[in-house]
Amino acid sequence: MSAVLTPNLSNNKIEAANATAASFASLLTKLDYLGKEGKELVRKAYRFSDKAHLGQIRQSGEPYITHPIAVAAQCAEWKLDAQALVAALLHDAMEDCGVSKADLIEEFSAPVADMVDGLTKLDKLQFDTQEEGQAESFRKMLLAMAKDVRVILIKLADRSHNMRTMSSMPTSKWSRICNETLEIYAPIAHRLGLNQTYRELQDLSFKYLKPWRYGVIEKAVNKARSRRRDILNKVQKDVEAEFSKFNIPIKIYGREKTLFSIYKKMDLKNLSFAQVTDIYGMRIIVPSVVECYTALGVLHQLYKPVPGRFKDHIAIAKVNGYQSIHTTLVGPAGINIEFQLRTEAMHIVAESGVASHWLYKTKEPHSETSERLGTQWLQSLVDIESETHDATEFWDYVKVDLFPDAVYVFTPKSKILALPRGATVVDFAYAVHSNIGDRTMAGKINSESVPLRTELRNGDVVEIITSTVAAPNPAWLGFVRTGRARSKIRHFLKTQAQTESLGLGEKLLAQALRAEGIEQMPSDDPKYKTLWDRLLRFTGSHSKDDLLTDIGIGKRVASIVAKRMVLLLSELGEKPDALLISKERFTAHENLSQGGVIVDGSENVSVQYAHCCRPIPGDTILGYLGRGEGLVVHTEECSVGQRLKHKDNERFIAVEWADDIVRAFETELVVTVQNGKGALARVATAIASAEADITHVNMSDEYSAQSAIDLKFTIAVRDTTHLDSVLKNLRRIPVVSQAVRVTSNKDHSH
Fold it and tell me: Which is it for strands 597-599 and 336-343: parallel, antiparallel or unpaired?
């Protein structure tokens, strides 16, 4: 929360100083777990922060320093180390007080400065939109958090205190801050297992977003609480008595559903308050895991369980490390009560999640129980960032992975993986390993072959079939659910496009050099280093690979680069071969100049087949190097291609079909039929019987009114011979008066 600068009012000085001293004194009482050096470091940070924020007042009227103290106090509750508490006290110093990172490194060490820098918003940079600025801020914060989880813990403590003091903020800001908290900070708290913080952030956001509804539900809960107090007390006594018979020591607590989760349940399921049955529950803490299961048996003997309301999160922990057994029982007076059974260690993780790592450190210094909590997700942030340099795209990926619902599936070797609800076979493949994702060819669920887009369900055993020749398909981006899968697929496609374009560029430049009388492209030999350096300066490319890629995607014209290279070579004493020039010019009049481009349909993004004329094998074709779109193949008689050739001749190159074509190609037909019952079906059958696939059909809107209509088909054929057999089949049908291929569409252009 940004500071408000006001004059230092003398009559408020003593009162403000007293309030600050009192709040810092209360922080000190929470630092018993730190050693003497740690406490001294925190004192030093307090003095530094107090001086930096001198004269700044919060909107509540309190001295600004009370906010950093409150944030540090929350971090002390989580037993974070001295460095984290120092960063908490200084978290606004860079943003609001002009303190530099170098100052913090000098005073407190680099790790502290890195944490504060990770927490500092990017308000000082100019962004095109507020959203872009916000996304860049979160990208920076999340990456700092991935390197050091203390950053997000301090940020969550900061957000919690700002939410607790929201009433002093202008009401115009409430909606934005509360929505941001619900969409971003509460899910992060949930993902990292900080249950108390998650619940508090949700309830405070609800209170300021929908104050009337909050008030109504709060009143109803208070009323129900007083009405059911006697029943809950009776349940507690019965449970304690039953466990004492079995000599199992337990701690039992009442648990209440948050007002926000009651509201969400009422809203989603269209229930009245009276229909929400699990508002109250009991939490039982036992000494060991085995006793959790024993306690379950004791409870089920005492009260009848509600069928289908049992979950074992001990055997299969939640994504954020949460472990407990949940069972709903029918208590006295027919009231449903949910019981949660867990050990003390599980309870710490359930309430504090990732923060429990530090709580464990203080209780059990050598325990690694929660070392792994959240770390896999945090590591995946670093992976995604390394492949995504656009902040908004990165934030979209992260939001996907904050989705709290999960499905739990198994590998064939019985390892459990947790994925977001809606995750597919491809998501699973990338969750196992990015190499497996990139090489995925097919998938099996519970030993049955399934499409790769199949959504996974709890308990599925998923097997991935890989192949060395398989590669990610752009269509996968339409159905994958996880940010990791999406970023890996995009990264692969970008890299592949670059590799393909580089190969095409090399071929085009070699061809252009031959036309200029140079047999071979200069190598990377040191004697040609100066030549390449001068050529790169001329084209403005960073490297040889960049230059060849630019030629491949049409940003540079091969013939212009070749002419420049010939000049540079002549300075080195290498002259063009006149015989080669005349040979090249002679063959250029024939089918193809030597070194031309061969296409077979296997090209991915570096070669496109023009939609205006839809060339198919057997057509005479030519290639146009579009600016930035790679090589576009047109048929020779295409009117769009002819116009481009007239206007931009030097961008056209010779192209021909390979002997072995690897796929079918689409072309368009217009079939004129006498309108009548079953005409479309007969035409479709004729196309299918010629072994061609129909990919699209379009017919006149006045289908029923006209006596003769045009049916437009897009079909996939192997070559022109295959197309001829389709047309023959169609012309044999009595109701067909005409069947022709559409060879050029004047509405299309590049």
Answer: unpaired
